[in-house]
């Protein structure tokens, strides 16, 4: 299942120098985000190996804007904590990079976010989370807010219109947006509608809600 997505995390800057150099984490392993996704250790392994073969590293962007690179990464690797990055903002050449640098020092820039293609995932019924097991990393952005609203019906619709497959958590959010309970949405995602029939007394109502998604897709 392949789809371009973003995954946000609180900006964990270990240090930032006057020259624009910084280090921190673009993604944390084992942390459940607001959409019920968990990045598994090793998820970036194949992608980082591919970048190494190319002799390059993922792009450093401002707010996921492909037209606004603001620096370069000098190291991107997995450690026990997550996706560790070291980079340098081009503060001598780019006014936007200087602005980002100032906000980082003032702690007013509060998020980091990765742009990626999800290659492999698994739903954990016990923990009720989606485990992201293989991620093709495209870029690591500095973002103002570490949360986004991609897991909405309009964005699921947009993904399908582009010929992409929505992320599992996006589709689950869409189910909840049209009225399913959290338990119903998770049951549907885990086992399909048959699970709703066996677990919920109001299965007919749930089915009508699921069918209502067709007007979006």
Report on the structure:
Helix content is 31%, strand content 36%. The chain folds into 2 domains: 4-148, no CATH class; 154-215, no CATH class. The two termini are 18 Å apart. Strands 1, 2, 3, 4, 5, 6, 7, 8 and 9 form a 9-stranded mixed β-sheet that branches. It is elongated, with a radius of gyration of 19 Å. It is an alpha+beta fold and 217 residues long. A hairpin with a 4-residue loop joins β2 (12-16) and β3 (21-28).
How many helices does DSSP assign? 7
Structural class: alpha+beta
Question: What can be said about the biggest beta sheet?
Answer: 9 strands, mixed
Distance between the ends = 18 Å
Shape: elongated
**Rg, alpha carbons:** 19 Å
Mean pLDDT: 78
State the share of residues found in helices, binned by percent.
Answer: 25-40%
Q: What is the domain total for the residues? A: 2
Strand content: 35-45%
Which sequence of SSEs, written as H and E, runs from N to C? Answer: EEEEHEEEHEEHHHHH
Count of DSSP E strands? 9
């Amino acid at each position: 299942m392949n789809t371009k997505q973003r995954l946000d995390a609180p900006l964990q800057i270990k240090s930032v120098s006057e020259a624009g150099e910084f280090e921190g984490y673009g993604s944390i392993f084992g942390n459940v985000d607001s959409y019920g996704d968990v990045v598994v250790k090793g998820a970036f392994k194949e992608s980082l190996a591919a970048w190494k073969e190319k002799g390059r590293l993922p792009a450093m962007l401002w707010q996921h804007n492909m037209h606004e690179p603001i620096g370069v990464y000098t190291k991107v690797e997995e450690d026990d904590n997550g996706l560790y990055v070291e980079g340098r903002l081009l503060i001598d050449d780019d006014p936007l990079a200087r602005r980002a640098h100032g906000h980082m020092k003032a702690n007013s820039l509060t998020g980091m976010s990765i742009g990626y293609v999800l290659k492999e995932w698994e739903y954990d019924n016990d923990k009720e989370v989606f485990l992201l097991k293989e991620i093709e990393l495209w870029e690591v952005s500095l973002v103002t807010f570490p949360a986004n609203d991609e897991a909405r019906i309009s964005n699921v619709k947009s993904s399908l219109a582009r010929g992409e497959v929505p992320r599992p958590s996006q589709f689950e959010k869409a189910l909840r947006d049209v009225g399913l309970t959290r338990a119903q949405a998770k049951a549907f995602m885990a086992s399909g509608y048959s699970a709703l029939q066996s677990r919920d007394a109001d299965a007919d109502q749930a089915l009508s809600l699921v069918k209502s998604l067709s007007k979006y897709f």
